[in-house]
Amino acid sequence: MTSWQLQEAKNKLSELIERAISEGPQIITRHGVKIAVVMPFAKYKKLTAPPQRLGDFFLASPLRHSELNLERNPSTSLRDLEL
Q1: How far, rounded to the nearest angstrom, does the alpha carbon of residue 23 sit from its chain's CA centroid?
Q2: CATH number at residue 24
Q3: Residue 36: enclosing H or E segment and its boundaries?
Q4: Bridge partners for 33 per DSSP
């Protein structure tokens, strides 16, 4: 990641944004201390998105309305396993 001093970031904001888009996150420092990061909005959105729940994953499945029968056949016996 590239670091920019705050004053330089102010003076070259357009370049800073273009480099964030093409090269990835850019760090802004003030008096040598990291204070901010400029990154593409799509990456920010991905970082801040709430975690997907398992139920949401299955609800979004393209197989949801495929009429796939996943019920166990009751006539099939279970086999014993030795552990």
Answers
A1: 18
A2: 3.40.1620.10
A3: strand 33-38
A4: 30
Domain count, the chain: 1
pTM of the model: 0.61
The CB density around residue 72, as the number of other CB atoms within 10 Å, is 7
Beta carbons of 62 and 77 less than 8 angstroms apart = no
Q: What is the pLDDT of residue 23?
A: 96
Q: Do the domain assignments include residue 67?
A: no
Computed over every residue of the chain, the mean pLDDT equals: 90
Q: Does residue 80 lie in a domain region?
A: no
Provide CB contacts within 8 A for 60, sequence distance 6+. Answer: none
Q: Are 28 and 9 in contact (CB under 8 A)?
A: yes
What's the CA gap between 39 and 17, in Å, rounded?
8
